[in-house]
Amino acid sequence: MSSFGRLIPLTWPFIIIFFFFFFFLFLLSPALAAESDHKYQPGESVVLWVNKVGPYNNPQETYNYYSLPFCHPSGDSAHKWGGLGEVLGGNELIDSQIEIKFLKNMDRTTICPLHLDEAKVELFKNAIQRSYWLEFFIDDLPLWGFVGELPSDKNSEDEKHILYTHKNIIIKYNKDQIIHVNLTQESPKSLEVGRSLDMTYSVKWIPTNVTFARRFDIYLDYPFFEHQIHWFSIFNSFMMVIFLTGLVSMILMRTLRNDYAKYAREDDDLETLERDVSEESGWKLVHGDVFRSPRCLVILSAVVGTGAQLAVLVLLVILLAIIGMLYVGRGAIITTFIVCYALTSSLSGYVSGGMYSRHGGKSWIKSMILTASLFPFMCFGIGLVLNTIAIFYGSLAAIPFGTMVVVFVIWAFIYFPLALLGTVVGRNWSGTPNNPCRVKTIPRPVPEKKWYLTPSVVSLMGGLLPFGSIFIEMYFVFTSFWNYKVYYVYGFMLLVFLILIIVTICVTIVGTYFLLNAENYHWQWTSFFSAASTAVYLFLYSIYYFYVKTRMSGFFQTSFYFGYTLMFCLGLGILCGAVGYLGSNLFVRRIYRNIKCD
Fold first, then answer.
1. 118, 193 in Cβ contact below 8 A?
2. Is 582 a domain residue?
């Protein structure tokens, strides 16, 4: 076993890194390269890509553009397949074959005559009643519009639904590059069975002085994200951190100093110790049990390892988003998240393997498999249910089978081997027990304490302050994801994430101290759940947001909203729980290192 453990760290890192480095470059290339840097010549063709349609109030309920009886291009149309993140985001770009030439204005031109029968009228009426919007792309810039409009008198049966039949495309350019695109819908016509409508379009080119580097700024909602309340929330959370860390430091340092002085006096005065043993209380009394192996060690080590990986992953993705402006590319954030998640899997194995071995665990392969599969399989289970619903509805949100295969290949041939490598390295490098105090053979009975010192209450109360430090930022994140806004203030997110980490550690340390002072040495799971309960409050907030802040409806959108939210809350809970446990572990080792143990 030892030779196997020494061999793998020497050979596998180089093989895996070099082999899969080029694979990831190939995987990322569709998302990173592209039309967005294309320079056009006068008269060169510019492709109008049609993407999707769907109810405006239900962002995830999207369908293929040609699921409505619009004008179909003649013959087979080219498809634009982006990166992995674009496919997972529910995008399917199809060449509309509408003729657009660079710098060439086009007057009203007919795309095709649309003959309305009863089936087509019903499809369009249903789309208009549900406020269907449509999305196009030109040079990787999006255009949006609505399919039609309801009659002015919704209660009148004589009024007909209105379909927009003319698309006016306005394109702004700077020299040989496209800077901005806009779509206006005109020529509304009533829907009547047997009527023939001419579907038309026009193109107008307008010069602009906006540079290519700034062309995406028009899609950013500065008044919303950089509103005074956003700055105030960051300042408020920052002041909370200063106050909380100062309070925790002052209380714990003063209390611990008094405890150390008390225990030092008792150690020096054996007669006093024997006389007052019945009145003695405090965290020192459990020094023989505090480092006892926790219940369900294999599960705890797996979630702590996974949470440590997620914490590093979130920090890494935020930094990459700040540096690389990932919000510009379709699906770039999702692709970056998946790639970084696979490459950081060795960290989860290292933390989990080291922790499992330090506590005397023997089935390290079982621990490694659970660590590598716990969070991915939870997400896979939720995603499988949502994908089944999407397939039933015929939505673009359904993940193609080929994409599932790619994700499984990434997990099986990249994520899993790196997790195995991290586990072996963690067992060899950090798996040796180094507890400050010796664990006694017979466990000490835990005395009954008041209700507010029980692990369940400590766990529930522990998530309140961390949630309070992030819930305003969560409002902006939810709004950007569910209400068609581009989230770009990753600097704010970085500050909030660091604040969350600091507040979580401080609150968990306080809870752990109170628990140990109550002579309850089962602090491991309590510290984890105390921090992980932040996700419970976030999920409760998401329920409030769904019913108060959105107008989503229907089984499809409701299931996708709560499915994605549950997935996000599970990740956040594991992340915060791991941070809380690791912080409490350092605190416990620190305080027991400075006392005299039997």
1. yes
2. yes
